[in-house]
Each structure stands twice: as structure tokens, then as C-alpha cells.
Amino acid sequence: MAKKGWRELPIGVVIAEPGNTSQYKTGDWRTFRPVIDNAKCIKCNICWTYCPDSAIYVTKEEEYQVNLDYCKGCGICAKECPVKCIEMVGDA
């Protein structure tokens, strides 16, 4: 069975393959995306903790990045950041 994009799925569909969530890129409906200023970041992990999509990750260089394949642009990371180093920008 070929994978379908989320726009091609019928309304109310249940995908019965266990453990398949990583196969479906859910960031397509995003209208805003977070941009992290790592120079201001205090590495508190609050953005990572609150992200409902587990889209924030730490690189080998210990910089925070966003996996835009899964980020839905909810803005929770930016709202919760205590030093406001995350800005939500229009997703072009």
C-alpha cells in the first residue's frame, strides 16, 4: 500500500498500521514556524518539554532546532520560552 499525504486521506480515516506516525509529515498545515535565536537561548529545555509534536531537538553542537516536517506552528514553544529567544514567523 502506497503512503498517502494527509490531504489525500478520506475524512474520518483510521490508519491501522501500528507505530506509523513518523511516516506522516504533519507540518504541512503550518502557517507560522518558530525561529530559534541560539545566541539568546539559555538551554533550559522548556521549549522541548512543552512541544506537543516533539519537533524540537538539540544538535551535536548543542543548538536547538525545529523539525519542520512535524512542527504544526502552534507557538507554544515561543510562548513558554522564558528569555523569548523563539519568534514565530510566517511560513512562506
Give the SSE layout:
Blueprint: E1 32-36, H1 46-50, E2 56-58, E3 64-66, H2 76-80, E4 86-90
List the secondary-structure elements in sequence, H or E: EHEEHE
CATH architecture of the domain at 36-92: 2-Layer Sandwich
Q: How many DSSP helices?
A: 2
The overall average pLDDT, rounded, is 86
Helix content bin: 10-25%
Q: What class would the helix/strand composition place it in?
A: alpha+beta
Note the main sheet: 2 strands, antiparallel
- CATH domain fold name of the domain at 36-92: Alpha-Beta Plaits
User: What's the Cα radius of gyration?
Assistant: 15 Å
Feature tags:
two-stranded antiparallel sheet, 4 strands, alpha+beta, 17% strand, elongated, single chain, 2 helices, 92 residues
Explain briefly what this protein structure is.
The protein is of the alpha+beta class. Helix content is 11%, strand content 17%.
Structure description:
The chain has helices at residues 46-50, 76-80; strands at residues 32-36, 56-58, 64-66, 86-90. It has 92 residues and is α+β, with helices and mostly antiparallel strands. The chain has a domain at 36-92: Alpha-Beta Plaits, CATH 3.30.70. The strands form two sheets. Strands 1-4 form a two-stranded antiparallel sheet. A two-stranded antiparallel sheet has the order 2-3. Strand 2 and strand 3 (64-66) form a beta hairpin.
